[in-house]
Design a protein that fits this description.
The protein is mostly beta strands. 8% of the residues lie in helices and 35% in strands. The chain is built from 3 helices and 25 strands. Strands 5, 6, 8, 9, 11, 12, 14, 15, 17, 18, 20, 22, 24 and 25 form a 14-stranded parallel beta sheet that branches. The chain has a 9-stranded parallel beta sheet with strand order 3-4-7-10-13-16-19-21-23, with helices on both faces. Strands 1-2 form a two-stranded antiparallel sheet. The radius of gyration is 20 Å and the shape is globular. It comes from Arabidopsis suecica (Swedish thale-cress). This is pectinesterase. Its main location: secreted.
Length: 332
Amino acid sequence: MKVEAFIPAVLLLCFGVMLCLKSSCALQIGNNNELKNYISWEDLRVVEDGRIERSFSIKENSNWVTTNANANANATNVRRVIVVDKNGGGDSVTVQGAVDMVPDSNSQRVKIFILPGIYREKVIVPKSKPYISFIGNESYAGDTVISWSDKASDLGCDGKELGTYRTASVSIESDFFCATAITFENTVVAEAGEQGRQAVALRIIGDKAVFYRVRVLGSQDTLFDDNGSHYFYQCYIQGNVDFIFGNAKSLYQDCDIHSTAKRYGAIAAHHRDSETEDTGFSFVNCDISGTGQIYLGRAWGNYSRTVYSNCFIADIITPVGWSDWKHPERQR
């Protein structure tokens, strides 16, 4: 796998991102200069009782209705928060129900504040609903869990096997998504070599997404970092076989990457198939821990690109380090 060309770009991206996050400026990702296209720290915050911050509530017809008499008549100046409470005390008892409340072609940040609990549901944030935040209990991400248990060999509504792509407990298809203090989980347990037990906890297809202090739990194919530019900061990601995979351009900084492999496995499986693709995974200042004898990465594509920079790596990596996935031509 070729790694040298990606290192400078990744380190510059890391530096730029952290400069923004440590200040009050908006986090600009990419070349879009429109003011609306941003993610800031404020998009990851909500007062602990979301009802205080809500200046809008949702009617069944999904129209925004002012509930604060002093609210500015211009909706662009009003924060929007939807509260999810499985016990019935919020705007929705399910996460998907809250997502459905967001209008299509939304152009402003909507914060979905999810109260503690285990939400056993499959969630899709469609492409038509950008600028959504999932916010849990800021003191501990383990308090708010979105969990499901689909695996690749399960049959879908069409009578066909789901395959890996359709197993995700949570799928993010929209742009400018961000999440904090949430656990994304797929409860299927799989070991290396088992067939049909690929089970995705989180799939990200949308562009310019940020994940801060979230947990992503699974076994095989835990995090499907599919497409787009994504930033993971202080996250915990757990699995055993190819548990971070896809073809995104993503930076993982100060993250805990934890292997649960009993024998062998792999952390990353990047799927870059051409030298012209500007994609890759970069792990910076991460803590690699756990069990097994695993690969740092497997070359899913002909030009797979994965970088580890200044990471602490426990004695769990197989001596060869990398796997060419039985394609010697991928040794570049």
